[in-house]
Amino acid sequence: MLAAAMVLSMTACGSTQEEAPAATESAETESAAQETAAAETESAAAETESADASGKTYIIATDTVFAPFEFTDASNNFVGIDVDLLAAIAEDQGFSYELQSLGFDAALLAVESGQADGVIAGMSITDERKEKFDFSDSYYDAGVTMAVAKGSEIASFEDLKDQKVAVKTGTNGAAFAKSIADEYGFEIVEFSDSPTMYQDVITGNTVACFEDYPVMAYNIQQGAGMEMPGDVNESQTPYGFAVKKGENAELLEMFQAGLKNIKENGKYDEIISTYTK
Ligand code: GLN
């Protein structure tokens, strides 16, 4: 972990605004004890040592469980590629932030409604989203894939006929599934997070789900009882950091500059290789 005192808010999305002042206070002490205490109370901020001159603490929203980009590890730390990239970029650029783990759909809504300043959540850069968000350059390549329970007979989209298919609300995978549902004659069931969606497929309530390839591959490698039939890998949609369109331009610029710096100094590669082997 970086020099940053890194704690995380695991609160529901409704509490965003009440959380902010407490988080700013906790940032001022920055001791390890403080970090532990804050973590235990589930209230928190992720802060860099060097707050920017304005003293502003940006609220950054993220997903709850989207390994290897954001997830809680065996030691109960909230970690992942997004979490570490943001910490490294904030340290490089000297800005303070509070990371809020809200869920994917809720994270996007928080930024759209102005409750959060930015989002990093394995969020795909799409033309549709560009109407509502300004994106950084991409920091990771991804695409949507179909996944089924291990040993399933489902091997192609044709096999989905008259079946139920799981998607995660507000995602690119959901949009893709919806775009082909009529053509292949399947019914869509929505979930708000990835683990619940996988579980539904594993238990056989739904016969398949649509998820980002790197995320599905990581989960299968970690033992999820699923597989990706064939080479079904649609819509290449790399990930970017986003702010609400027309707002927080300085935050986006700092992210962009920091991303460039950590790509040059090796930190980016170090983070990626921590989570992908
Ligand atoms: N990359 C997908 C999207 O942007 C899914 C992101 C996620 O579930 N966190 O829609």
Write the layout of secondary structure elements.
Blueprint: E1 5-6, H1 16-29, H2 32-40, E2 46-47, E3 57-62, E4 71-72, E5 78-79, H3 81-93, E6 96-101, H4 104-112, E7 118-119, E8 133-135, E9 143-149, E10 164-168, H5 172-184, E11 187-191, H6 194-202, E12 208-212, H7 213-221, E13 226-227, E14 233-236, E15 242-244, H8 249-264, H9 267-275
Helix pairs in contact: 3-8, 3-9
Features:
single chain; alpha/beta; D-Maltodextrin-Binding Protein, domain 2; 2 domains; 5-stranded mixed β-sheet; 9 helices
How would you characterize the overall build of this protein?
The chain is α/β, with parallel strands linked by helices and 277 residues long. It has two domains: 5-139 and 238-275, 3-Layer(aba) Sandwich (D-Maltodextrin-Binding Protein, domain 2), CATH 3.40.190; 143-236, D-Maltodextrin-Binding Protein, domain 2 (3-Layer(aba) Sandwich). Helix content is 36%, strand content 20%. The protein is built from nine helices and 15 strands. The strands form four sheets. Strands 9, 10, 11, 12, 13 and 14 form a six-stranded mixed sheet that branches. The chain has a five-stranded mixed sheet with strand order 6-3-7-15-8, sandwiched between helices. It has a two-stranded antiparallel sheet with strand order 1-2. The longest helix is centred in the last third of the chain and has 16 residues, at 249-264. The chain is globular and about 55 Å long. The relative contact order is 0.16. The protein binds glutamine (GLN). Glutamine binds at residues 63, 66, 104, 121-124, 142, 168, 171-172, 212. Glutamine (GLN) is lined by residues 63, 66, 104, 121-124, 142, 168, 171-172, 212.
